[in-house]
Structures are given as C-alpha cells and as structure tokens.
Amino acid sequence: MGLDADTLAAGGVEQVALHERAAAVTRERFGRQVFVRGVVEISNHCRENCHYCGMRRDNRALDRFRAKHDQLAELLIHHRPASLTDVNIQAGEDPVAVREVALPLVRTLRHETPLGVSVCLGTLNEALYDELQAAGATLYIIKFELADAAHYEQLEAPGTLAERVRHIRLLALRGWRVSSGFIAGLPGQSADELLANLRLARELPLDGCSVSPFIPGESTPLAREPVGGLETTLNCMAALRLMRPELLIPAVSALNLTGADDGYRRGLRAGANLCTINLTPAEMRGDYLLYKRERFIMNEERVLQAIAAEGLEVSRAGLTEHWCHEPSALEAAAG
Ligand code: SF4
Hints:
The chain is an alpha/beta fold.
C-alpha cells in the first residue's frame, strides 16, 4: 500500500475503512484464528537507560528482582492456561538473567512442554543468541523502538539505531524468526518520524512487529508528557497489516492504558492477530515497570473474553506450527 501521513492521521469514516481493510486482510491470511502466548518477565534489572521506560538503570526507586527458574518452570509446566501454544521469556537487558534464568528455562520448556519459545532479552552477543537458539528458542523479539537515529540517541534507546538494526538482521541471518516493534506518539515525534518507523518495519527481515502507544513511565524523564494517541497507534497497526499481510502483529496491553477501555479490542479489529497472557507471578509483576505500577494486566480471562467478543477464535496451532508452512521474511525476500 502507499504510505502517507494522511493514512496515519485518518479519522471518521476513513479510519473505519482503513481498519476494516486491515481486518479483512488479516482474516484472509489467518482466518478467525488468533495466536495466544504467555509471557513471563524474569528480571527487571537493566543496563540500558531508555527515557520511555521505568526499568531504566537510573531509576533508583525501583525494587529489582530476578525470578527463579524452578518457580517459573513449575508454573509453565503444571499450571499454564490451556489456551497457550507459546511462551515469551522477557527481561530488561540483563545478561545475568539470560544465563541464570532464561537459558535453563528455555531448555526445561523444550524438554517438558510442547510450547514454542520466544525470548525478548535485549541486544546480546552472537554467542548468547546461538546458545538460546540451541536451547530451543525460535523467535527473538527485539524492538527498534523508533527509526529516527537522532531521536533514538536523544532518548538513550539501547546502543545506537544502526547497531539495533544490525542485530535484527544478524538474528534473521542466524535462523531466528524475528519480531520487532516501535512506539507511536513519543513526545516530539513528527508525522515523518512515524512514517519512517513503518518504512523501517517494511524493509527489515521481520516475521512480526508491534506498535505500542507511548505511555509516560513513572520515574522517567518523560513522566509528565502526554500519553501517545490510541488512534495513531491503531492506524499504524492497520497500515502495518496492509503493508505486510503475513506479519504477526500483537495486540499490546498498553492499548488499554491510553484512556480508552476498548483499546485492546480495537487492536484486534485493526490487524492484530496475537494476544499475550501475562503469567508473571503477582509478587514480581508490580516491579516490572515498563510504564507505571497500575499496568493493565491481560490475564487469561481478559484475553479470552476479548477474542470471543470480537468473534475470533484461539488458534490451536502455535507459531512454530504456523511457520512450518511459511518461509521466513529473509527467505521470502530472497525469493
Ligand atoms: S526499554 Fe528495555 S532496554 Fe530500555 S530501559 Fe526498558 S527494559 Fe531496559
């Protein structure tokens, strides 16, 4: 599709038409099936200092935690919701947690469950990527966050934009399925910057991409800034779906933190095809401060209700099974 600022600013009947087209393309490609995965947040230690995130290293007000392998293994092997086909192991950028928790947990899940395993652990080195892959993880989630290099640097996003993009390409080359993502509505983000996010998402070898509305995080330099717009975020999701029909596009829980109760469900109407159930034990969840303490937690009940209310169904096939029949973005680009 042609991409322009008017699409991202669409309102009224134009916006309805945009979202309906995106939903139709999603149904054509995936039917009424929505993938359901779980997420466990294993550490809120982070060596990075992103201005938009409450887990940044300069936030001294935060109690830091690292989860225990055995607790999460017990939860995921014996007490996970029946609807899950996949699980995402997520942390701040904390190489200690990668070694002590993520790697053993991936191995355990591989041996003890049929779950597909994704990881979202930040920019690591090639040896660690390979170890995680050998342990059985198949999808690496690494967001580029914003595609404007100067703004990226100003917000102290991880490393540099060029480095982040290099790691996305490297992961794809090493056989990972890769999902990325960006933030819509950051303070000072121009329409051109938003379009640049979509262009970068289009050209990278991605199998998935999220769009998250900017939520001013507690104890961050952006704490007093306004929330990023839900409408712009939904329009970006719809544009992404029309540009790349095959992508995995999550409905992110932050869609319900923009002031609208129906943000999450509207995400499912604007091209999303993945829901995530938060499984982090309650005693740790409060300190996983991506935004603010009153996070909108998508538990199993809320996710299943949202899927049913939109006339959709939980996919029995997991991501691994789905991708068995689909070339990776890198393979597709190579023809
Ligand atoms: S966004 Fe990620 S890398 Fe940046 S401070 Fe937060 S947890 Fe760390």
